[in-house]
Amino acid sequence: QIFVLILIFLIARKAFDIKTALIAVTLFGFVPEVIKQSDYIWQPYLAIPVALLALCLLIQSKSQRNPRLLIVSLVLLCLATALHHSIFPWLPVFLLATFLLTRSFLVPALISISALVLFYSPVIVFFLKNQVDFTLIKSSPMIVQSMEGYFVNLKSNLNLFTGAFNIDNTWAIILFILAVLYFLISSREKVRNRNFLLILTLF
Question: For 89-107, what is each residue's pLDDT tens digit?
Answer without folding.
Answer: 888 888 888 887 777 778 8
